[in-house]
Amino acid sequence: MPYSLSLPVDQIAAAIEGFFWPKLFWDFLTKNLDGAVKPIPILQILNLVLGIVGIAWEWPLKWIAGTGIHRSMEARLVVYSLSSLVAVLLYQGTNPALYYLIGIGAYLWAFVEGEAVCEQPWSLPKRGGRSPRRVV
User: What is the pTM of this model?
Assistant: First the structure.
């Protein structure tokens, strides 16, 4: 996914902006969740951490690339769903949250189709070593 690297960057930017202007997206409905953004910036810290995890996942270092967690589509679906949930709660994070949902849909489609994440980033998957079947 070419745009999936920009989503964590947007989420980090929203978290940093949230430190200066703490606001929940849903504060027009209830004030019960205001404790998540001020006086202790819990939601901003979660967005910052999940954004850094997203960057590390999509643009992996050599010690992360090729590991089971890097190649796992199931783990990506879970973490990106959590990232979307945390981002949509923060007012500044609604844009990355919506795009995360689109990315989750694309990853889900790829998972259903049986696609795999390559061990080496920015490469093509290796063949399974099987010879092609001949149709008789």
Answer: 0.80
